[in-house]
Amino acid sequence: MRTLKLVAVSAGLSSPSSTRLLADRLVQATRYRLAEQEYAVDVEVLELRDLAVDIAKNFVTGFPSEALREAIDKVTGADGVITVTPVFTASYSGLFKSFFDLVDPTALTGTPVLLGATGGTARHSLVLDHALRPLFAYLRARTAPTAVYAASEDWGTGGDEYTEGLPHRITRAGEEFATLVAAVAERKGDSVDADEVVPFAKQLADLRLD
């Protein structure tokens, strides 16, 4: 059974926080779907509030602490990344943006990313499309089709006949993200090493067989 590495990045500032809760729910939905596809899943959750001082010092000194370096390496080395930020002034939080400012612009190329955000009102749900998707498009990541925004009133509600409740959106996002992570991982596993040199005689033989 193949093991896939998932990293969830939570930018919540309080403990406990709805941001961390949403991250945990998205992890759970993704893990469940991957288990159905017979994958083992190794999950690590990064709380950015624990790295806030290290992130600020990095901008001043230009050098990451060991803890910050390890966190960045975990994110860039993951098979899939789940990111959840609280909404401040109609956009992602400064802590969230500062962390990803420290990630090399090419380090997440092709990496599946599931987007999530939390806020006090549903009016800020467009943050997923006008702020988060452009950020990860710049980082060349592959964002899952469904992103999840959770307003305060979403918790504990199942939705009605006109709207999808938060549990349904989490499940759908997790299933889509799991499918994306598995597909990308399989392509990586099946790809031929770009540095491998194929002898010219073998190339000719392969052409004759075709």
TrEMBL record:
GO molecular function, one term: oxidoreductase activity
Enzyme Commission numbers on file: 1.5.1.-
Listed Gene3D superfamilies: 3.40.50.360
InterPro entries: CE1759_FMN_reduct, Flavoprotein-like_sf, FMN_Rdtase-like_dom, NAD(P)H-dep_FMN_reductase
Keyword line: Flavoprotein, FMN, Oxidoreductase
NADPH-dependent FMN reductase-like domain sequence ranges: 5-155
Protein name in UniProt: FMN reductase
Upper taxonomic lineage: Bacteria, Bacillati, Actinomycetota, Actinomycetes, Kitasatosporales
